[in-house]
Amino acid sequence: MGRMKNAAMVTAGILIGMTIAGPAAHAAAEYLKAYPSANQFYLDGEPVQMEAYAINGNNYVKLRDIGEAVGFNVYWDNENHCVQVESGKPYTGQPSLPSADLDAVRAEMVERINDVRIQHGAQFLRIDDRLMAAAQEYADKHYTWHHNQEECEAVAKHGYPNGFGSNLTVFTGCEVEHVAAQAVENWVNSPGHLKTMVAPDADSIGIGVARDNGVTYCYMFVGKPGTVNPYAS
User: Fold this and answer.
1) What is the number of H-type helices and E-type strands within the chain?
2) Segment 171-218, tens digit of pLDDT
3) pTM reported for the whole predicted model
């Protein structure tokens, strides 16, 4: 059974407070009293940790905790005053950048990176969908520093079999239309990041971009066919 099907099997409860008086108040309070649940939760047969409460014999968990465990996004939409669930996107707890905007930013970043490479005498990089998927997965995690082993495992999981170079930049106060320019400028102005960006043994590229509360997270993976990913099977 898939993870999304498992998610449907988890009961999420919402309690609505009400004002009551007299003897009924005590009875209702006891009926609605919440205790930390001692039950173990499983996902695809494996135990997972979730904050849960037992209320009148039922287990209640937060929808956002289910999303994080199972792998879908859920957040509160302030504009429409409702809960939004994005079944095809990883959990962030925040609204995702619209797909059209995201695709445009990533395409512009690839173009700008290739311009920099040409200026440094390096070959043009072609887009690799496997690296794009891995880079976007890690941008969506909102990391502010590298997680090398995780990155290697993600690249291998998405099917890219070779070694790769990785750049990450995180910044604030930037409109969507300026994200690509800002990210590439940050990497150009950092000797180590520039070296990765213009690596002569790279031949392909993947870009990931995510935004959360005014913070932008950008990943760049460049594929290197002559090198080895130690976490690729």
Assistant:
1) 8, 11
2) 998 888 899 999 999 999 999 999 999 999 999 999 999 988 789 999
3) 0.61
